[in-house]
Amino acid sequence: MDFKDYYAVLGVEATATQEEVKRAYRKLARKYHPDVSKEPDAEARFKDVAEAYEALNDAEKRAAYDEIGKRHKQGEAFSPPPGWDSGFEFSGRGGAGGDGGYEHSDFFESLFGRQAGGARSRGAQGAHGPVTGQDHHAKVQIDLLDSYRGGQRSISMRVPHPDASGRMVMQERQLDVNIPKGIRDGQHLRLAGQGEPGHSGGPAGDLYLEIGIAPDAHFRVDGRDVYLDLPVAPWEAALGASVTVPTPDGNVQLTVPPNSSAGRKLRLKGKGLPSTPPGDLYAVLQLALPPADTQAAQAGYREMEKAFAGFQPRRTLET
Asked: What residue segments make up the domains of the chain, in order of their start?
């Protein structure tokens, strides 16, 4: 995805005050509002302006955005920096489907997460009655193995908090979280009472965690199913073989049928993410060619060339 310079979108400096941000937004919103604008790209520009304003008008989001956006420019290839999976924690309702009535970009959601379903805002405040604390939300990453096995994990959160001068700075807090076995990418966990403290005796709000499964060196996740690229030797693919396959739950034996080709998917039923029913694990065959780095290896390839003299590897490209 590309980095979005929200300050550039609104045409303000990074040092702009909140009032300057608000004035710039109002000016551009009037210019690009789809109901009145004659600009050909008015709707797209209006969405960009609204998203930029949502990020910069909220002091918490702005603090998080400023922290990771110091070394990036508009349009640069961007991926969340190392350590982003510790998560930014925000109050109120955030993410896609918020008050703006439009879908946020992938960039916005990579920083602030999607809206936690059911998150509530601060309860109505009576003259003297108790007030429920505001809900918080955050996006965090867990390892694939955490989803397979579940259990308690310690998660580090970065929480925007005003310092003595009122400027938002990041503070760390650790939470022990019970990860349900089989939780999938995009699902939410509700931590009761871990949001903003209540007022006048009211209960604390909740913290909603949007779960993301961190990229794994060997496995890819699609819903409940898990995929593994499995290297096999040419003779294993051609003649068939029994090979050892790693899974997040441990090694298993897999039969490679004779005459298998690269890209063939072999299913290990029930070896995907735990669920009811469980997902499957698919081993995607990849041909691994031995290097011809010795005289014996080169002689072996020459013998193979003779044995398969009629083989035409590029036959499918013929017209």
From this structure: 6-117+132-213, 219-317
CA angle 26, 109, 66 (to 5 degrees): 65
What was the pLDDT predicted at 193? 92
Query: Per-residue confidence at 84, pLDDT binned at 50, 70, 90?
Result: low
The CATH homologous superfamily for domain 219-317 is Urease metallochaperone UreE, N-terminal domain (2.60.260.20)
Q: Which two tokens stand for residue 281?
A: 């694990």
Q: pLDDT of 4-44, one tens digit each?
A: 899 999 999 988 888 999 999 999 999 998 888 888 888 89
Burial (CB count within 10 angstroms: exposed 0-12, middle 13-18, buried 19+), residue 54: buried
- Say how far residue 310 (Cα) sits from the centre of its chain: 48
Three-state SS letters, 263-293: CCEEEECCCCCCCCCCCCEEEEEEECCCCCC
DSSP β-ladder status, 136-142 and 207-213: parallel
